[in-house]
Design a protein that fits this description.
alpha+beta, 17 helices, globular, 14 strands, Cytochrome p450, binds protoporphyrin IX containing FE
């Protein structure tokens, strides 16, 4: 006899959920830790221990069926698809990850800090004299794309086009798992950009990480066109959207916790811990999708090979079983030993050190240059996606200051 669900409606595409998903997440953890959505056909794991174990156990919870619910497919690679390491399991994944991991080590990332600070201040300069602006449109939207493009070797004149396409890719319609045409157009635009870019680079000098990838080999052979495209698209999407959202989420959360904002302004050493708490408390990535490779039983539920499973990071990071009785509180003084904001195991976020540094630098500069910023909470506009939390618009006011550049 298998257990059943106690009528919890969890649909990650429902806009109504996005305002406060954490009430539903708590019910999932407490009442249906292995929850089945019968309309959209997927399981959800929400307890910290289960999500961590599923991230670790790639043999049972495979990435090869896609890591986005709406892009799921049978666990096999179709020739002609662009092939991304985030959708491979070890051992295939291991060789691809090794190719690029050295670029994102702590030491390499630390060496980029001055450049990143310059980029952030360039965008803050565009609003600092006015005393008002939109955090997302003016600063946090543009700057991470500049950073990842600099790593990849993509020239400044191409970045606006890539950003516009990347911004479309994650947009979803209310309650629907259908990928909207605008999102498909964004993806096609990006793929076409890189097809042209790679063609232009072949046979000539080629900058940045893309230049390196054209020279590198996996299993004694050069990367195929689809593998190169896979890397380019993965880096642009992973490097831009999550970090953009994380920095704006931090400013929005601090503005609703004035005591904690004052504490961070008084002691900038609290900034790295604040970023860590935002990654735990309100992560820009809410879940990752996996596909079961065999039948298993969890919490009295029979789960079948081929079934979809969401690893609900957002719920796991609020689990009292891991974070104690204050798990549902935002606290910049908390120093969580571990959270799942960057995933866990083989696919642990490759850009974690970069994202942490970008977040630290951006928050340091915002608070240094506009410490009295106030968010216009009535005018802010939520970004709706199925697994990315953040803001489309976050208007602020502050005392004007001088440009730096
Ligand atoms: C706040 C910012 C970020 C968050 C919350 C985040 C979150 C995540 C998560 C949860 C995963 C695990 C995926 C899985 O297990 O299926 C992941 C993987 C990844 N992230 Fe990030 N990420 C962020 C920033 C970045 C940045 C700046 C980069 C730029 C290089 C990046 C590149 C990647 C890549 C390449 C992977 C795939 C790693 C692999 O398959 O081995 N991420 N990220």
């Amino acid at each position: 006899m298998t257990a059943t669900d106690p009528g919890i409606d969890y649909n990650p595409y429902a806009f109504a959920l996005h305002d406060d998903p954490y009430v539903t997440y708590k019910r999932l953890r407490d009442e249906a830790p292995a929850h089945w959505n019968p309309e959209l056909n997927f399981w959800t794991l929400s307890r910290f221990g289960d999500v961590l174990e599923a991230f670790r156990d790639f043999e049972t919870f495979s990435s090869a069926g896609g890591v986005a619910l709406e892009a799921r497919r049978p666990v096999s690679h179709r020739p002609g698809e662009f092939h991304q390491m985030i959708e491979m399991d070890p051992p295939d994944h291991t060789a691809f990850r090794k190719l690029v991991s050295r670029v994102f080590t702590g030491r390499r990332v630390a060496a980029m800090e001055d450049e990143v600070r310059g980029i952030v201040n360039h965008y803050i300069d565009t609003i600092i004299e006015a005393g008002r602006g939109d955090v997302v449109l003016d600063v946090t939207g543009p700057f991470p794309m500049d950073v990842i493009c600099s790593v990849l070797g993509i020239p400044p004149e191409s970045r606006d086009e890539l950003r516009a396409n990347a911004d479309q890719v994650l947009v979803r319609e209310d309650g629907s798992m259908e990928i909207p045409q605008a999102a498909l157009d964004g993806m096609f635009g990006m793929v076409q950009y890189f097809i042209d870019d790679l063609a232009g680079r072949r046979g000539g000098p080629s900058e940045g990480l893309i230049g390196d990838l054209l020279e590198l080999e996996v299993d004694g052979r050069a990367l195929t066109e689809e593998e190169l495209l896979g890397f380019c698209i993965l880096f642009v999407i992973a490097g831009h959207e999550t970090t953009t959202k994380m920095v704006a989420n931090t400013l929005e959360l601090l503005s609703r916790h004035p005591d904690q904002l004052a504490a961070v302004i008084a002691d900038p050493d609290l900034v790295p811990g604040t970023i860590e708490e935002v990654l735990r408390f309100h992560n820009s990535t809410q879940y990752m999708h996996r596909t079961l490779t065999k039948d298993i039983e969890m919490h009295g539920r029979q789960m079948k090979a081929g079934d979809s499973v969401l690893l609900l990071i957002g719920a796991a990071n609020h689990d009292e079983r891991e974070f104690g009785p204050t798990a549902e509180e935002f606290d910049v003084h908390r120093t969580p030993d571990r959270h799942l904001g960057f995933g866990y195991g083989a696919h642990f976020c490759l850009g974690a050190a970069l994202a942490r540094m970008e977040g630290k630098v951006a928050i340091e500069e915002f608070l240094r240059r506009m410490p009295d910023y106030e968010v216009d909470h009535d005018a802010k506009v939520r970004f709706h996606s199925s697994n990315v939390t953040g803001w489309t618009n976050l208007p602020i006011r502050f005392t004007p200051g001088p440009r730096q550049g």
